[in-house]
Design a protein that fits this description.
single chain, 129 residues, alpha+beta, Alpha-Beta Plaits, 4-stranded antiparallel sheet, two-stranded antiparallel ribbon, 36% helix
Length: 129
């Protein structure tokens, strides 16, 4: 085999394993505050059978301030802030409910950035009836 071709194959394998390792570390960090199983999601943030993939919606509470709402919406383009609804999490009177979903580019990075906010204590799956 051509030595440069062999080198390319070895480097590709190393790069793929490094990406997989880093992805695992990122999921571990996010999983500290996220209550749903991230391994259910594919690279596009979708889950379910191949002919019925769908996004996973999630919810969390934030302090009831315009600045925190703006910060969250700048991190998560899918975020919708509800001032009056407590959601399933039962956000308090001094909190806003935020609902977002995983069908977005780099959903895992978005979740990582959300869990790094000190005022986000838990992110759980949202269910709609």
């Amino acid at each position: 085999m051509n030595p440069s071709k062999l080198l390319a194959i070895v480097l590709s394998a190393l790069l793929l394993s490094a990406c997989s390792y880093l992805d695992g570390l990122l999921k571990d960090k996010v999983q500290q505050k996220v209550t749903f199983d991230l391994t259910r999601l594919d690279a596009d943030g979708l889950y379910g059978p191949a002919d019925g993939k769908r996004a996973l919606s999630y919810e969390f509470c934030i302090p009831a301030h315009v600045n925190t709402a703006r910060q969250v919406m700048s991190i998560d383009p899918t975020a919708i802030v509800y001032k009056e609804s407590p959601g399933r999490l039962q956000c308090g009177n001094e909190q806003y409910l935020v609902v977002g979903n995983t069908h977005q580019a780099n959903y895992l990075v978005t979740l990582k950035n959300l869990v790094e906010l000190s005022y986000v204590t838990r992110i759980q799956e949202a269910f709609f009836e």
